[in-house]
Amino acid sequence: MAKIRFSCPRCQAVMQTSEDKLGFDIACPQCSHQFTLVGQDVPTKPPASGTVPQLNTDRPGSLAEETRHWVNQPAASDANVAKTPPSSSSMVDNIPAGIAIPPIYQGTVSNAFSCPYCQTRQPPIWKSEVSTAGWIACVVLGCTTCIFFWVGLLIRDKYTVCSSCKMRLPRNFV
To answer: What is the DSSP letter of 75?
Structure first.
């Protein structure tokens, strides 16, 4: 088997594997980002001429009758792209009347947050999981009473996840 070299789309770490892993989901050993390993023959951008790309019909299981049409759209010019994010007050003021503002956005939206991994300014997502103390209580109650083991599963620990890159944020970061 021939070896192929590729890089992680998130952290750009260079890795090497055999060709038989093409098409499978793999995880980067450095940043744990999961992505599908694709070969060089797969087009990543639409052709510039506006033609429909031909499918590879010599592979088993390919659908020759399937066609893909690329939509050619002009790229956004620099004049149309906002150079700075809108201020927090304009984001709240632009919400139509009668629409409830979620509790996380009430008041002013803070631009102070910035993800340490992807530098996005989107607010993080709060999640919870069973804490270590909860697992210990679950095991102890399960061994002693066999009925109240589920009480340990109610002991939760809150944590934050970046809404863009889905990486877990440090405990004291937010």
So the answer is: P
